[in-house]
Write a structure and sequence with these properties.
The chain is built from 20 helices and 16 strands. The protein has 449 residues and is an alpha/beta fold. The protein has two domains: 3-231 and 435-448, Rossmann fold (3-Layer(aba) Sandwich), CATH 3.40.50.11720; 240-432, Glycogen Phosphorylase B (Rossmann fold, 3-Layer(aba) Sandwich). A seven-stranded parallel beta sheet has the order 3-2-1-4-5-6-7, with helices on both faces. A seven-stranded parallel beta sheet has the order 10-13-9-8-14-15-16, sandwiched between helices.
């Protein structure tokens, strides 16, 4: 049998097996998501979209479908959406006829992008927004027939076998933009090579963030074109209203230093609170922002149990505070979404959550954009290239414990010149890495010619 026929046969068997597995899991997925249906848009609308790929009441869809150049871009949540926004702007700037259908998986990502569109009317006219269907064999088929894109762009690590297989069958160009692949993800890809390789082979282009990411994609064994285009998150638009918001908070608290722990994980907050209680700097405020919203209440309770005076971000009224909030609080729990820039402009120092423990870390780009020196642990595995670059400057510092964050942070704050240099280095780090979105858009347009 011809080699190409063998590859196609293997790919077909892999997709069939994957489809069977996802179908068997569909009842579990349904019950897991059902609480979200009730809480957000309603059961009927969500089931139709998520489980059957049926679009209903999507603003601007008629203009999109009439366009001669239709691009579907998919991003899972807030982080991926941050990366996608500058790419969207570049694509529509380069071609006035281009229309974008943008989809999210999570509610936080959806809410973030919806808010962004409301503030950017010029982009709102060229972008249609919806949730994405779950990757069963039937839902993407209905969805793709309705949206009829000429190109599909997935952000970072979004690789959905059924959807990508259908796109390939329709001869629709498939791109993985701002692509990253950590060492741990590479191991998982190799363990699931029966489905990951046939899926990756269907991509027309992978735009990797770094040399290491590009190498890892090739190390999967997939036969796919990989280019290095940089990290699009460096091009993210900085919302001035968020900057002003954070600066306004500074004026309220009569503190000398503001310490931010961003995107903290389960069980991490308790250890941070212990370190803060043990080493708490004089006249300092800790801002702790849990990664997952469902844990906000637990973190507030934990801080109170540790004996801290605690405020919540939801107690704030823009730059003012409700009457029961006093500036004597020792801990503020950031129980809000999409306000990393505000927290970063508020803080003097930052700790990357999920990096002292083995959780892969969090992107420090938004922190650096506001001139906030970054401390992180040894487990920045999802952002290895960025963390290595930061360590070569005075903007990033590696630690191995939460106690060390505080002691090293105090050392930095006590040296005015070193602290000033670190802030400048953080901003320069962001500026020197811009341009990935423009480069990616150029490669995508070239692919479509």
């Amino acid at each position: 049998m011809h080699k190409k026929n063998l590859v196609n046969l293997f790919s077909g068997v892999a997709i069939a097996l994957y489809s069977v597995l996802t179908t068997l899991l569909s009842p579990i997925i349904f019950f897991k998501l059902s609480w979200g249906f009730k809480k957000n848009r309603g059961i009927a609308s969500e089931i139709l979209m998520r489980f059957f790929g049926i679009l209903r009441d999507i603003d601007g869809f008629e203009d999109y479908i009439k366009s001669k150049k239709r691009i579907w871009i998919h991003a899972v949540s807030v982080g991926e959406t941050h990366a996608a926004i500058p790419l969207i702007r570049e694509l529509v700037l380069k071609d006035d006829e281009c229309r974008i259908l943008f989809s999210n998986t999570t509610y936080s990502g959806f809410s973030f992008f919806r808010t962004y569109l409301k503030k950017n009317k010029s982009l709102d006219e060229k972008v249609v927004h919806c949730f994405s269907p779950i990757d069963f064999f039937w839902a993407p088929k209905i969805f793709l027939k309705r949206i009829d894109p000429q190109t599909a762009i997935f952000i970072e690590t979004e690789i959905w076998p059924n959807t990508i297989n259908l796109l390939s069958k329709k001869n629709i160009k498939i791109v993985l933009a701002n692509a990253r692949l950590s060492k741990n993800s590479l191991i998982k890809f190799k363990k699931l090579s029966w489905i990951s390789i046939p899926t990756l082979n269907k991509f027309d282009l992978i735009l990797a963030q770094s040399d290491n990411d590009a190498k890892r994609f090739l190390d999967t064994g997939a036969q796919v074109k990989v280019c290095i285009s940089g990290n699009m998150k460096f091009d993210a638009f900085v919302a001035k209203d968020m900057v002003r918001l954070g600066e306004g908070w500074k004026n309220y608290f009569p503190k000398k230093s503001f310490w931010l722990a961003l995107s903290t994980r389960k069980n991490e907050e308790k250890e941070i609170f212990k370190a803060w209680k043990k080493n708490k700097p004089h006249n300092a405020l800790l801002i702790i922002v849990p990664r997952h919203p469902e844990r906000f209440d637990w973190v507030v309770k934990q801080a109170k149990n540790m004996g801290f005076f605690v405020a919540r971000r939801s107690d704030f009224l823009n730059t003012q505070f409700s009457s029961d909030v006093t500036p004597n609080f020792e801990v503020v729990v950031g129980d809000s979404m999409g306000e990393i820039t505000a927290y970063a402009s508020f803080a003097d120092l930052s700790l990357v959550g999920g990096s002292v423990i083995d959780c892969g870390g969090q992107s420090p780009i938004e922190l650096c954009s506001q001139g906030c020196p970054v401390f992180f642990g040894p487990y920045m595995t999802n952002f290895l290239s960025i963390s290595n670059q930061l360590l070569k400057t005075s903007a990033g510092f590696e630690i191995h414990s939460y106690d060390e964050w505080i002691t090293k942070g105090l050392g930095l704050l006590s040296n005015h010149q070193e602290f000033s240099n670190s802030k400048k280095a953080a901003i320069q780090f962001t500026l020197s890495n811009k341009g990935a979105s423009k480069a990616s858009a150029e490669k995508i347009h070239k692919l479509l010619e």
